[in-house]
Design brief:
The complex is a heterodimer of chains A (273) and B (251). Chain A has ten helices and no strands. By secondary structure, chain A is an all-alpha fold. Chain A has two domains: 66 residues; 183 residues, no CATH class. In chain A, helix 3 runs parallel beside helix 5 and helix 5 packs across helix 8. Chain A is globular, with a radius of gyration of 22 Å. Chain B has one domain: 3-Layer(aba) Sandwich (Rossmann fold). Chain B is an alpha/beta fold. The longest helix of chain B has 18 residues. A six-stranded mixed sheet of chain B has the order 6-7-8-3-9-10, sandwiched between helices. Chain B has a four-stranded antiparallel sheet with strand order 2-1-4-5, with helices on one face. Chain B contains ten helices and ten strands. In chain B, 34% of the residues lie in helices and 24% in strands. Classes of the chains: A mainly alpha (273), B alpha/beta (251). At the A-B interface, helix 6 of A face helix 3, helix 5 and helix 7 of B. Bound molecules: adenosine-5'-triphosphate and magnesium ion (MG). Magnesium ion binds next to helix 2 of chain B.
């Protein structure tokens, strides 16, 4: 039976690779188009396309092998994904100590809480074939939420150093001085997910629903299930964005309530009033 | 209240000799820096500054642009951390005081007025609000009148001129009733007519509340009008401190 499966995959893979070549050709054309306006992304595009293809082939192989694996294996794969997501998100705030762990814990908390809730309520089965794709979607969105939240928080605080230090000078607690920036950072990190929810079904029919309908599920149930997943994405993103900014807030101040974050010389804030 | 004399003054023998009348026992509100320094990378922003300033005294800080005057003030309310040396407030090492409490007692008006979005009144009430107090509206109105901004309480800060913003920032710091007032060029955005008014106001309030005041200024005449003593800084160092007329005319 395994050999049978391998043969089938073999044929699919050939067709798939041919299609992938087509996709790459289209991207290459776009890269050339960019060049026409002096936007140079050849190298980055080539690297990311190659990486993406290799990564997805590997994921396919892993899934093929572990299709019916246990919850433990699924959890392990998700943990590795969370680690990779943390590395990616932490790249947004280079130069701040502890960024990697900050991102890891906030993504793990957001995705972990939501996935645990889905497993507990039976809205997600624990087989690898189900857990990993759904889990990866949630982790990927938590990662984006984390990156957007910390980047926005950094940008807002460095743009308002004067106000933050004025508030500190008047005896305010550090948390009070950055409260407006924490709010807008969390909101900014949620916005893409809120838009995703609003456009659900109107401009966007996500892959899970398509897959379920193709494999014979009732379209109405598939639609409801897709809604549940996007709602869980929203929840995970919210938890992640909140935890990431609250953790980052601590790192932005010294023990003596001094603002440590400094804008680069180039983007010094303009004085108010 | 009794203040205990600091036990030792390492390497500061010269200081006591310079100001024998203020030797060890400082009155409340008095401020003393000991070898205060801040270094970033290899750069010394403030370098080994030791001064004693008595309660109710007004001291001017002068020196060329980039001399470290603002950096010096920022160390005094611990907005920045000294890399060595320290500050004594009423003979107590300021690192033993909670930063929030210290900054209420050592108020600072920064070189640029950074106001919080909202009304002028909300800005004035910000400091007391941090301690759960509501500054009565009458007090806000009175403070604004003193800085020449009568009727500004309900204005939005978005429409203020630079000079108005600077005076709101001054009133906002005064609303905290600090013991020590640090002023970083508080009249740099005002025209000559207003400058005199604000100087009078500062002198009046400092006298009335027996506040200690350190004022950074580029304006020699202002230093002469306001400060009994002046400290001259250059490249982070304290070049000299003494009676204002002497310091200014030597330079
Ligand atoms: N965070 C910092 N990192 C590095 N250098 C700094 C920093 N803050 C200030 N400096 C430098 O330290 C020097 C002293 O700056 P400071 O603002 O204290 O000068 P100042 O005497 O107040 O000047 P001005 O009269 O122009 O206000 C300047 O050369 C400034 O560029
Ligand atoms: Mg300055």
């Amino acid at each position: 039976m395994l050999a049978e499966l391998r043969d089938m995959i073999g044929h699919d893979v050939m067709v798939g690779l041919a299609q992938a070549a087509g996709a790459i050709a289209l991207c290459a054309a776009v890269v050339l188009l960019c060049r026409w306006q002096a936007v140079r992304v050849e190298r980055e595009a080539a690297v990311s396309l190659l990486r993406g293809l290799v990564q997805m082939v590997l994921v396919g192989i892993v899934l093929a092998v572990l299709l019916n694996g246990s919850l433990l294996i699924g959890a392990l794969i998700l943990l590795l994904m969370t680690g990779a997501a943390a590395v990616t998100a932490a790249g947004r705030i280079k130069g701040m100590g502890g960024a990697l762990m900050l991102c890891f814990w906030s993504i793990a908390a957001g995705a972990g809480i939501v996935l645990a809730a889905m497993l507990a309520t039976g809205s997600l089965r624990s087989q690898v074939a189900m857990l990993v794709p759904v889990g990866s979607m949630i982790i990927a969105n938590a990662m984006n939420s984390c990156a957007q939240a910390i980047e926005r928080f950094r940008a807002e605080v460095t743009a308002h150093v004067g106000q933050v230090e004025a508030a500190l000078s008047l005896g305010a607690e550090p948390a009070v001085t950055v409260a407006p920036y924490l709010r807008s950072a969390v909101y900014a990190s949620l916005l893409p997910r809120l838009d995703m929810m609003k456009s659900l079904g109107l401009v966007w029919i996500p892959g899970v629903m398509a897959g379920m309908v193709v494999s014979g599920a009732s379209p109405v149930y598939a639609g409801i299930y897709q809604f549940i997943i996007v709602a869980m994405i929203l929840a995970a993103s919210g938890i992640t964005g909140l935890i990431a900014t609250v953790l980052m807030r601590r790192r932005v101040f010294s023990a003596a309530a001094q603002l440590l974050l400094r804008p680069a010389e180039a983007d010094k804030p303009a004085p108010a009033g | 209240m009794t203040t205990t004399a600091p036990s030792k003054d390492p390497g500061g023998a010269g200081l006591s000799a310079q100001f024998p009348e203020r030797s060890e026992r400082l009155p409340p509100g008095a401020l003393e820096t000991r070898h205060l320094s801040r270094q970033i990378g290899g750069r010394r922003l403030v370098s080994d500054v030791s001064v004693q300033i008595g309660r109710g005294e007004i001291v001017a800080v002068v020196g060329p642009s980039g001399a470290g005057k603002s950096s010096f003030l920022r160390l005094l309310n611990r907005l920045d951390e000294p890399t060595s040396g320290t500050v004594l407030l009423q003979s107590i090492d300021y690192r033993t005081i909670a930063p929030q409490e210290l900054r209420r007692r050592v108020g600072m008006v920064m070189q640029t007025a950074y106001l919080f979005p909202g009304t002028v009144a909300a800005n004035i009430g910000f400091g007391p609000r941090q301690r759960g107090q509501v500054l009565p509206h009458d007090n806000i109105v009175a403070l604004l009148e003193r800085v020449g901004l009568a009727g500004f309480a309900d204005r939005d800060i978005g429409h203020l001129s630079g000079g108005e913003a600077q005076r709101v920032a001054l009133a906002r710091t005064l609303a905290n009733a600090p013991e020590v007032l640090l002023l970083d060029e508080p009249t740099s955005a005002l025209d000559e007519a207003l400058v005199r008014g604000i100087e009078e106001l500062i002198l009046g309030i400092v006298r009335e509340r027996q506040m200690t005041c350190i004022i950074v200024t580029h304006n020699r005449a202002q230093a002469e009008r306001m400060a009994g003593r002046t400290m001259l800084m250059e490249a982070g160092r304290l070049v000299t401190i003494g009676p204002t007329a002497e310091v200014l005319h030597a330079g």
